[in-house]
Amino acid sequence: LLCSKVGALPILVPVGRDQSHRPFLMVKLRAEEEESLRRVKRGLECNGKIHICCKRQFYVNFKDIGWNDWIIAPSGYHANYCEGD
Questions:
Q1: Side-chain half-sphere of 36: how many Cα atoms within 13 Å?
Q2: What is the pLDDT of residues 34-67, one digit of tens each?
Q3: Under 8 Å CB-to-CB from 83, ≥6 apart: which residues?
Q4: Fewer CB within 10 Å, N side or C side of the chain?
Q5: d(C-alpha 52, C-alpha 56), whole Å
């Protein structure tokens, strides 16, 4: 296996007579995307100083709302939401 863009060396896997445990490699390829098509990360956390849309963290703990007797796992989840203009 040779990845020319990364510059990695080829991988050589010797295969013996026992064919029952042959190694395999599954590879998924996708075409290289242009810079303009890539999604821009916008994980802006709210800090009280900005008024644009930002992520407000909110954790729902099932024990706090009395649901821990019928929801075994997980103990809660992050129900973050957007806040701002």
A1: 0
A2: 555 556 556 677 777 777 888 888 999 999 999 9
A3: 46, 53, 54, 55, 56
A4: C
A5: 12
Q: What is the CATH number of domain 42-85?
A: 2.10.90.10
Q: Is residue 44 within 8 Å of residue 50, measured between CB atoms?
A: yes
Amino acid occupying residue 60: V
For the chain, the domains span 42-85
Return d(Cα 79, Cα 65) in angstroms, integer: 14
- Quick one: CA dihedral 29, 35, 39, 42, positive or negative? positive
> Does residue 63 come out as left (phi exceeding 0), alpha (psi in the -120 to 50 range) or beta?
alpha
